[in-house]
Please model this.
Amino acid sequence: IRLMKRGHLLHSNVTVLALVTLTSFVQQRGLCIADSDTGAPGDAISCDLRSGTCDPLIGRRHNASVSFQVSHDTGVCRCPGAGGSCYGDCGRKFDAAEVATVETFKYGRFETRLFPDLRANGTLVAFFLYKNDSDKVPGTSWTEIDFEVHGMGKHSAEPIQTNIVTGNMGRRTLSEMFLAAPRHRKNMNAQMKAIKDSFHHFAIEWTPSYVSWYFDGHRLRHEVSCDARGADAEECSPQVARLNKAMNLRMSVWPLDPSMPWAEHWAGIFDRKNAKLPLTVYYDYVRVYDYEPFSKGFTLRWTDDFRSFKTSRWERSQHTFLANEPHFRDNAVIAATNATDARAYLALSIARGPGVL
Model:
């Protein structure tokens, strides 16, 4: 993580590593249910199976023993619990970045101003909510709300990804949608200019009755709980009611493992040899609001403009997972700006690991 002064958006080799969302490549409003015991999709509705599976946690690399040497020795790769996240020396040749809030939240509004300057296949930047340890305890509930921008790949004309993930490590339901920046043509060049040339405002609203995603003030997607009063039984989302556990807020950037059988469809193939690194994205600020159940509105809880990195508020991830090409290590340098500066940026990067050319 590097905190950068406003006006000095410099690509940096400094990185922090990320636990990021794992999502399906479901088309538009289709739900996908995957069974990790068999490595095959379960009851899939409108699930695009062209790449062989609908869940990045599932497939030929699902069994950690295939990909990793699992041990309690800190010098080798360890994949505790259900096998989602892995720690230690897992053989990754790239570094990437994630930060996560120390505290958790149950409902609220979450905002950031982000410069998602990613123009490489197989890469993505994320702003999302995730229930801690969803991937570690077999049978425990998995809850996640994703807001991502993908680098290039098959979705370059609709690079904004939104998703809800529920279920558990063994059987997860995903409702992924790829969207274009509103009021711009749905082609790669127009969307790249609309999204990746400057800062933009991203917001997630999470309440007991709905989840909404906003881009520059435009509501891109709105999912209403089937338990909400007056909900349309054919249009409502059964997943929203399952988002009933506290989650923390996370921000990350990472490249997808190009050997995944669905990689080309979902994010494109990351070029391990020729990718121009480092790639850096910038977060200007984060705002968190509490949900008020009586007024149905939101009250500001805190704002972080990153004039310093608050370890009481944020922590850095130090792991990898099966679909993640890099390892998220705590090898970052925090370069805090002077407190008299008006603003700073939080910069997260993808870079080659130590000794990798």
User: Anything to note?
Assistant: The helical segments are 64-67, 188-196, 263-266.
